[in-house]
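hiii so my PI (J.) wants the whole complex modelled not just the main chain, which honestly fair. so below is everything: two entries, each one labled with what it is. i double checked the lines twice but i was tired so who knows lol
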Amino acid sequence: MNEVQATHTKQDVTSNTSQDTRALLPRVDVLEDDAGITLLADLPGVPKDHLELNIEGDALVIEGVMAPFTPERLEPVYAEVRLPRYRRSFTLSRELDASRIEANLKDGVLTLRIPKQAHAQPRRISVQVG
Amino acid sequence: MYESMRGFPSSLFGELDRLQRELDDMFGFSGRPASIRAVAPGTYPAINIGNTPTSVEIYAFAPGIDASKVEITLDRGVLTLSGERQNDLPDTNDKVSVYSRERLGGSFRRAVNVPDDVDPEHVNATYRDGVLRISLARHESAQPKRITVQ
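here's the output for the full assembly
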């Protein structure tokens, strides 16, 4: 019901086949409270101008590209991070208000706050007796 | 998750184990002797190391840390980087459901071998967009010099 369904696998590197470019799957924390959903994603190396947040229908796509920060003539010796791009998508359920998303990117951590539609917030329904 | 399930007496997890090892082979981790300081894939922070003719560059992918509290020491050819990632989640209480907790935090320590020609006096570290970049300059005298014939 109130869920952000994640389309992902458990491995870090996957062929995210939405486009032809492979990307890393960023690690994500998702929490929900009464007013909406908070999503925190680790995107180290991505500056604000290289981050794209797209809503396509009911899918939220987070895509970030690392800004080049290596000097000329750098010869890699050992790499645990082998791709310069992150991508992850989520389907949003209908009571989330995608038009009021707030996003904040600091030190490689993306914080998204997706509030619920105003009418979707929990309301106590009182039972009439008699 | 799969680490703990490896001993499970079922052929399904044996298959997953084999798949994991095949992927490791594809990415070149197994077969050759690994560094004695090697860590499991997925350790926070991930590290990339590169060489330039004049320096050794180490990149640690560590989002969400306080760079002033990271300790970087260089001792006898080993560069150690340690620090702590504070938990930055909003307060959880009864009304909050947690659907996903994948990000790693807590204290971390990584050690990396650096070659002998590195000059410990000229080490530079910067933190930007979640990447800690450590640049170790090589000794001037160790750099290849062109010798011209008179």
